[in-house]
Write a sequence for this structure.
């Protein structure tokens, strides 16, 4: 029974640990979900504003400005961007830096497009084209690909056309984060779900502790028996003293100093003379 016994303080400590642990998990979940919801809401607002700002670039509506030159042809736009990057990338990425911002390379669909060189696993860096002020993923192309196929640099126009779909994904992500935060807050407001089982375990542990204490106490007559056992040596000593007194009274001391009734020691036998030491012969 001792192996299954938990002290009431131990049971209470385990229960409080579970409550604190569950509360901590729910609190962290709520905080993280709220942070994601706020971040998603801010990004969604920027995307929705960009949708209002954007200008159609599909088909014949394509218009792009690179530097001081304006073109309506995608292949020509790609060549102009490649020339601009080559002009501004003469020094490459500075030593010890992961990237090198090149600045605004063009204007497309009502947005400024910024170019950045970023180190890659290969020896050739990547070119990133980003819609300024819009929380969307940049168009990433290898610098060697840009040199071989400049028309690939017009991929930013697809980012502009995908803004409505990006807004839908952001709205859905914000809804998921809000629901997760609400569930965590609801869980924090609820009592500990194992409270009843913990209370029952505490009561049972107290009962077992009381029962073990009763079993460890001696029986009612054990103290009297122990007193009699302690008094036994004293009684034996008193009996031995009384026997010695009676012995001295019955067997008084003789004149020779030996009590009467004791055995007389036998006389010592004379030692025979040693012949080898007789000098008279």
């Amino acid at each position: 029974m001792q192996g299954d016994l938990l002290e009431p303080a131990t049971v209470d400590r385990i229960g409080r640990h579970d409550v604190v642990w569950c509360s901590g998990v729910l609190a962290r979940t709520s905080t993280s979900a709220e942070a994601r919801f706020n971040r998603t809401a801010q990004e969604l607002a920027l995307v929705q504003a960009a949708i209002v700002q954007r200008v159609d670039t599909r088909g014949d509506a394509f218009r792009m400005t690179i530097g001081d030159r304006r073109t309506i042809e995608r292949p020509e736009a790609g060549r102009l961007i490649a020339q601009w990057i080559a002009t501004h990338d003469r020094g490459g990425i500075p030593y010890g830096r992961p990237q090198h911002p090149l600045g605004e390379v063009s204007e497309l669909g009502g947005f400024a497009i910024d170019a950045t060189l970023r180190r890659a696993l290969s020896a050739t860096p990547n070119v990133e084209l980003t819609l300024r002020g819009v929380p969307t993923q940049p168009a990433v192309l290898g610098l060697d690909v840009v040199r071989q196929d400049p028309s690939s640099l017009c991929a930013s126009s697809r980012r502009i056309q995908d803004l409505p779909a990006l807004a839908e994904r952001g709205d859905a992500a914000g809804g998921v984060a809000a629901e997760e935060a609400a569930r965590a807050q609801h869980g924090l407001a609820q009592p500990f779900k194992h409270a009843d089982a913990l209370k029952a375990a505490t009561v049972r542990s107290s009962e077992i502790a009381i029962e073990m204490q009763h079993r460890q106490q001696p029986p009612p007559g054990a103290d009297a028996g122990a007193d009699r056992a302690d008094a036994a040596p004293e009684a034996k000593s008193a009996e031995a003293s009384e026997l010695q007194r009676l012995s001295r009274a019955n067997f008084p001391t003789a004149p020779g100093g030996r009590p009467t009734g004791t055995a007389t020691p036998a006389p010592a036998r004379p030692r025979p003379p040693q012949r080898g030491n007789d000098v008279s012969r």
